[in-house]
Specification:
single chain, alpha+beta, two-stranded antiparallel sheet, two-stranded antiparallel ribbon, 4 helices, 28% helix, globular, binds protoporphyrin IX containing FE
Amino acid sequence: MLISETLRKHPPASTTVRVVTKPYVIPGTSVNLDVGVTILIPIYGLHHDPKYFPDPEVFNPENFNDELKAKRPNHSYLPFGDGPRNCIGKTEMCIIRNRH
Ligand code: HEM
């Protein structure tokens, strides 16, 4: 929980990038993403959004207890990115994290 909270509050990668390969409308909006557009995924912004982490500026390892983790959508916490181009260091870091 300590390492997870450290990576939440101070993510070494504050954003990551994707390029749109298929036309897509963001659900619930009228925002069209055209093929070829570059998208910045705001990792730092998600990790500091009070919708997902109440009191985001406070260092609170309890943000990662089972109960609070289950309440958040999966992609509100992305220190290693996600999908086929996620961080290859993630597996090793997760093994270390599980020891804490
Ligand atoms: C706390 C440690 C680390 C953090 C927070 C971190 C974070 C990230 C993030 C956010 C990405 C972008 C993933 C995406 O866009 O989905 C990334 C990519 C990557 N990381 Fe890490 N990383 C860490 C450690 C490492 C280590 C130890 C290695 C090497 C052993 C590594 C190798 C890479 C590589 C090669 C990529 C590019 C993967 C690709 O484009 O397919 N990272 N990392």
